[in-house]
């Protein structure tokens, strides 16, 4: 008998807390996010977990996957020259396009930070390529521009350079057409730089004026250090974007010539869907996650060496 | 209390939205005793329009059948078909391709059509046996061809005339080379030589063997010959430069180097003829793929352009077979389809349609007729791994044309990689 009393008390307490919980703000939050969470689980987490499982199988989509241990990875690293070609092409693309895009974005942001009547218009215009840039239409436009009888050669001829290069057909130039396309789409980084530039206290520049600092000193001693958190954010963002590039290679060059523009994602897609080697494609995806994750981690580890946080 | 109420309301709303879609579908499936067939194909706008028109006609003649059509482009088609196959809900009737037939059949996804031939649901009396065989594996037909197709070379007759040459009935590779030199000297127009999988198959066939049989055992005989030809043409002054070739990707009809007159010839299949002529915007002529001087067998063959197959999981196989019968054997259906999928396989139907089609289509009819008289049986359906081998063939051709590989290295490299792909599939 003595035991029963506290039990009911506990029960009442629980009922009370349950009612309280239902009434609290938190529940409404969970209900409102439920749709997203279901979607996130169904379309992100579960597929990712499945792809991790498939990475260790031979899976042609049509018949059930068969476990084959590390065979996919062994094949990738030891017996697939195209894998390394695509890896190299992607690395080359990222190493050049990401810094160039960031520099471009920063330069344009510096130009646009000054208030003028047309600055809103300019901002919109400079942002435009980023909206349309990864579309198929632009990819096809790019292909025409860099054709041997395209606009680029005509322009070069117009300024007196006798130029008849098949830009897309040469191993050394084809990838650069894709890099230039990437640099051209600097808009989103530019907007982030712009808002970063506006956060820098005007007082710092006023002091610099008093001290008689020139524009270069102002940029390297004030603007750039104060902007490093934004640079850091943009760098990580663009790095991940760079590794995920797909349309340009898929539509403009299709990996030609000699697989010099075959992006990792395109080769992954080909394996998964064209060659019906889904297991191999999943293994490639997870290797990419590993690479991108490692690079991001390295960047985060080094950030206290070069990123300046005011607080 | 108010809060709980509003939360519950939101949850209810969300739930009703989620389940509303499912409920509607169930209602549609009941459909007062009518039989619903799903049909799925890949193709272009013309094909989508004419096929839908034919389906509408069939439904008006057979009021108890409802046919739901879906279509996609080539690559989207196979992505989605494999997904439906994995989910066990393949459409009842699917368009099938020669290169995928083996894979789908091996996985038990396609229904055997022989019972429908035997009970007369599908009338095969006017269909050549070779056509039935082209969709058969081990004596059982799993896919009925919708039209015939043949490998072809297209060329610009104006260039040929300007160079003072005439095209023989069937070129040899050696004659093509000489022709290319004369054309280049007289007109400056370049020549394209196909290094891809179609030419590989043709060269193997001139040796009396089959490409994938050789590759499966690492036999280099035909490939040595093939890559030497490719090298020979690549080194000739008449050859289109590798830069230009890579830019004007011959895989894409619209940008093929023949389209803007960079070259005077190109290679493809006969059902691409109209598209190539449209892209070029000038008259082009069809001729056969080249054979070789020392050929021991005729390499030309007829290929089913595409098939209809019935899904093994279909609940209405007999009705699906009846539709396929009407689609292939009735003149009224083909008067709508107009040979868009290839020359009708029913010989009576083909004769009935021919006067109705335009000049370009008639050229294809004539070409298929001509090839039909000399054709030897087609290679067995492609093994799994063909797609990857084809891709490696393209890169190898590039390596060779850019001068990074000799013909011997190209042969050894290509054959060994193809062999290991075939072994792993």
Describe it for me?
The complex is a heterodimer of chains A (311) and B (425). The termini of chain A are far apart. Chain A is built from 14 helices and two strands. Chain A has helices at 4-23, 25-54, 71-78, 81-112, 119-132, 136-145, 151-158, 171-184, 187-199, 202-211, 215-243, 247-253, 264-274, 278-306, and strands at 57-58, 66-67. In chain A, a hairpin with a 7-residue loop joins strand 1 and strand 2 (66-67). In chain A, helix 4 packs across helix 13, helix 6 crosses helix 12 (247-253) and helix 13 (264-274) packs antiparallel against helix 14. The mean pLDDT of chain A is 87. Chain A is mostly helical and 311 residues long. In chain B, helix 2 packs antiparallel against helix 15 and helix 18 runs antiparallel to helix 19 (407-424). In chain B, strands 2-1-3-12-6 form a five-stranded mixed β-sheet. A three-stranded antiparallel β-sheet of chain B has the order 9-8-10. The radius of gyration of chain B is 25 Å and the shape is globular. Chain B folds into two domains: 31-148 and 305-370, D-Maltodextrin-Binding Protein, domain 2, CATH 3.40.190.10; 151-300 and 384-424, D-Maltodextrin-Binding Protein, domain 2 (3-Layer(aba) Sandwich), CATH 3.40.190.10. Residues 17-30 of chain B have low confidence and may be disordered. The A-B interface holds A 22-23, 27-28, 31-32, 34-35, 60-63, 75, 79, 82, 147-149, 165-171, 174, 254, 256-259, 270, 273-277 and B 3-4, 6-7, 10-11, 14, 75, 78-79, 82-83, 85-86, 103-104, 107, 109, 241-247, 249, 251, 260, 384-385, 387-388, 391-392, 395, 398-399, 402, 404, 420, 424.
């Amino acid at each position: 008998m003595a035991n029963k009393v506290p039990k009911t008390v506990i029960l009442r307490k629980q009922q009370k807390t349950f009612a309280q919980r239902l009434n609290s703000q938190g529940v409404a939050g969970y209900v409102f996010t439920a749709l997203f969470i279901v979607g996130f689980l169904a379309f992100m987490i579960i597929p990712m977990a499945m792809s991790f499982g498939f990475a260790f199988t031979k899976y042609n989509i049509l018949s059930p996957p068969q476990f084959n241990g590390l065979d996919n990875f062994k094949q990738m690293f030891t017996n697939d020259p195209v894998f390394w070609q695509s890896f190299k092409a992607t690395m080359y693309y990222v190493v050049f396009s990401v810094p160039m895009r960031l520099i471009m974005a920063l330069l344009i942001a510096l130009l646009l930070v000054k208030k003028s009547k047309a600055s809103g218009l300019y901002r919109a215009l400079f942002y435009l390529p980023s909206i349309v840039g990864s579309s198929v239409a632009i990819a096809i436009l790019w292909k025409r521009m860099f054709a041997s009888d395209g606009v680029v050669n005509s322009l070069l001829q117009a300024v007196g350079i006798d130029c008849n290069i098949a830009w897309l057909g040469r191993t050394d130039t084809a990838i650069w057409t894709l890099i230039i396309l990437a640099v051209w789409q600097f808009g989103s980084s530019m907007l982030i730089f712009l808002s970063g530039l506006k956060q820098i206290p005007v007082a710092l520049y006023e002091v610099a004026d008093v001290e008689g600092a020139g524009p270069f000193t102002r940029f390297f001693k004030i603007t750039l250090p104060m902007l490093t958190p934004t640079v850091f954010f943009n760098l990580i963002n663009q790095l991940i974007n760079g590794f995920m590039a797909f349309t340009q290679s898929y539509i403009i060059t299709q990996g030609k010539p000699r697989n010099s523009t075959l992006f990792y994602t395109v080769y992954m897609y080909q394996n998964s869907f064209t060659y019906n080697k889904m297991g191999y494609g999943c293994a490639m995806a997870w290797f990419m996650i590993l690479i991108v994750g490692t690079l991001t981690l390295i960047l985060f580890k080094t950030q206290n060496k070069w990123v300046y946080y005011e607080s | 209390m108010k809060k709980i109420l509003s939360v519950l309301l939101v949850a209810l709303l969300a739930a009703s939205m989620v389940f509303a879609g499912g409920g509607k579908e169930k209602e549609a499936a009941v459909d007062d005793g009518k039989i619903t067939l799903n049909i799925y194909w890949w193709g272009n706008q013309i094909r989508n329009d004419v096929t839908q028109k034919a389906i509408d006609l069939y439904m008006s003649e057979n009021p108890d059948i409802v046919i739901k059509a879906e279509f996609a482009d080539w690559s989207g088609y196979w992505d989605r078909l494999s997904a439906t196959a994995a989910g066990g809900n393949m459409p009842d009737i699917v368009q099938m391709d020669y290169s995928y037939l083996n894979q789908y059949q091996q996985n038990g996804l396609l229904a055997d059509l022989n019972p429908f031939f035997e009970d007369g649901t599908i009338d095969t009396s006017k269909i050549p046996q070779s056509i039935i065989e082209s969709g058969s594996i081990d004596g059982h037909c799993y896919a009925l061809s919708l039209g015939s197709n043949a490998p072809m070379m297209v060329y610009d007759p104006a260039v040929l005339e300007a160079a003072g040459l005439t095209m023989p009935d069937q070129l040899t590779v050696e004659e093509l080379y000489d022709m290319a030199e004369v054309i280049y000297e007289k007109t400056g127009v370049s020549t394209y030589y196909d290094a891809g999988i179609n030419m590989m198959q043709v060269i193997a066939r001139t040796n009396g063997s089959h490409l994938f049989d050789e590759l499966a055992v690492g036999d280099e005989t035909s490939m040595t010959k093939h890559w030497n030809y490719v090298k020979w043409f690549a080194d000739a002054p008449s050859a289109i430069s590798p830069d230009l070739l890579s830019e004007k990707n011959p895989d894409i009809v619209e940008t093929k180097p023949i389209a803007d007159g960079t070259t005077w010839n190109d290679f493809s299949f006969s059902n691409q003829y109209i598209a190539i002529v449209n892209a070029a915007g000038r008259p082009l002529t069809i001729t056969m793929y080249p054979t070789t001087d020392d050929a021991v067998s005729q390499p030309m063959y007829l290929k089913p352009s595409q098939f209809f197959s019935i899904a093994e999981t279909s609940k209405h196989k007999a009705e699906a077979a009846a539709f396929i019968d009407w689609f292939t054997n009735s003149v009224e259906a083909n008067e709508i389809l107009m040979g868009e999928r290839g020359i009708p396989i029913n010989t009576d139907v083909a004769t009935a349609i021919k006067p109705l089609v335009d000049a370009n289509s008639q050229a294809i009819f004539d070409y298929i007729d001509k090839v039909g008289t000399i054709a030897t049986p087609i290679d067995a359906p492609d093994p799994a791994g063909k797609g990857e081998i084809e891709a490696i063939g393209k890169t190898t051709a590039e390596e060779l044309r850019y001068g990074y590989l000799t013909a011997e290295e190209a042969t050894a490299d290509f054959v060994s990689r193809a062999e290991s792909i075939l072994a792993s599939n």
